[in-house]
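Design request, tokens follow.
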């Protein structure tokens, strides 16, 4: 099973930016041999950071199905509780590749940090299966976006996709995001935070979403729909430096992600993918077989990356918008 990293959530994008900058500086100033990815201890190994969610399960599927091995890639998977720690790990070279939502990568780009998408991750389609939603307690008096005014909502990270999605959804549906208090919780703790009254609502993902709705909670709304009806929620990122040094590995990784997405998106393979989830994540077989499954992108489409950039700009997470192609690696899109 993948190694579980239980480090806590980085507090806000200020803390995240500081961690990334320090990581980059430390790697740049290290003596020869230091600051290299720990994967270099074993030649040819890629160390990849993933969250313990269905939306990041692409990597686990690819590993279990032998797709990485077929491509000549030796992979070490690390499960990490939050995206901020993953991105920091990529910056400091303790990870070669990691999962990241577009809002966080856009923020990093606007601050001059060198991250690029080399593979598509999970997708959102308002008309399709929903594997992420805003939840409240089953007996909650919060029944609409307007009812969230003055309330506390848990998100996986401040100023990331979960934060801006709830803000956008609330504002589009009669609420006022400026009157909502946002706090950070790891995805595995979302349902208990709602159930114990620590927060009034939370944006949760599978497998936690199904577990929550069968026990303590109910769905208030499809918060990601506040961003757009169809967009890429997350993807696989590496630094410019790593991509330039490892163009073949980057291309092979992108091809494996596309192959895995095609496999995982087919309904006929969901029984097998559920078995893989049970073996690798903290999830019961009943939940794995009944929950709404993530849909993965088979390529990085700039048009499906752009919506998060625009929403991040609207909510002043970044100062100004930019072309999505600036955070997509040409090494895997132009060949």
């Amino acid at each position: 099973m993948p190694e579980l990293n239980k480090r806590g959530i980085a507090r806000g994008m200020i803390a995240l930016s500081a961690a990334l900058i320090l990581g980059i500086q430390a790697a740049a100033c290290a003596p020869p041999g230091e600051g290299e990815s720990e994967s270099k201890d074993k030649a040819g190994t890629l160390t990849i950071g993933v969250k313990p969610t269905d939306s990041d399960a692409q990597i686990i599927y690819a590993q279990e199905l032998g797709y990485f091995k077929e491509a000549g890639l030796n992979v070490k998977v690390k499960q990490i509780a939050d995206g901020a720690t993953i991105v920091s790990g990529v910056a400091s070279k303790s990870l070669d590749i990691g999962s990241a939502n577009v809002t966080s990568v856009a923020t990093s780009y606007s601050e001059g940090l060198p991250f690029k998408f080399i593979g598509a991750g999970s997708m959102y389609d308002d008309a399709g299966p929903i594997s992420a939603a805003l939840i409240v307690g089953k007996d909650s008096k919060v029944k609409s976006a307007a009812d969230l005014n003055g309330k506390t909502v848990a998100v996986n990270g401040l100023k990331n996709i979960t934060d801006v999605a709830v803000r956008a959804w609330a504002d589009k549906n009669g609420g006022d995001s400026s009157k909502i208090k946002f706090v950070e919780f790891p995805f595995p703790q979302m349902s208990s935070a709602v159930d114990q009254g620590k927060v009034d609502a939370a944006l949760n993902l599978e497998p936690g979403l199904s577990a929550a709705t069968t026990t303590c909670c109910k769905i208030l709304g499809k918060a990601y729909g506040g961003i757009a009806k169809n967009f890429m929620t997350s993807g696989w990122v590496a630094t410019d430096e790593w991509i330039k040094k490892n163009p073949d590995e980057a291309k092979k990784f992108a091809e494996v992600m596309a192959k895995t997405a095609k496999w995982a998106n087919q309904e006929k393979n969901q029984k097998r993918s559920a078995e893989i989830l049970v073996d690798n994540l903290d999830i019961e077989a009943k939940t794995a077989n009944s929950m709404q499954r993530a849909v993965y992108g088979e390529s990085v489409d700039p048009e499906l990356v752009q919506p998060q950039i625009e929403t991040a700009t609207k909510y002043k997470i970044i100062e100004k918008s930019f072309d999505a192609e600036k955070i997509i690696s040409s090494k895997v899109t132009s060949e």
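Comment from the thread starter after seeing the answer: thanks! The chain has two domains: 3-125+230-327, 132-226.
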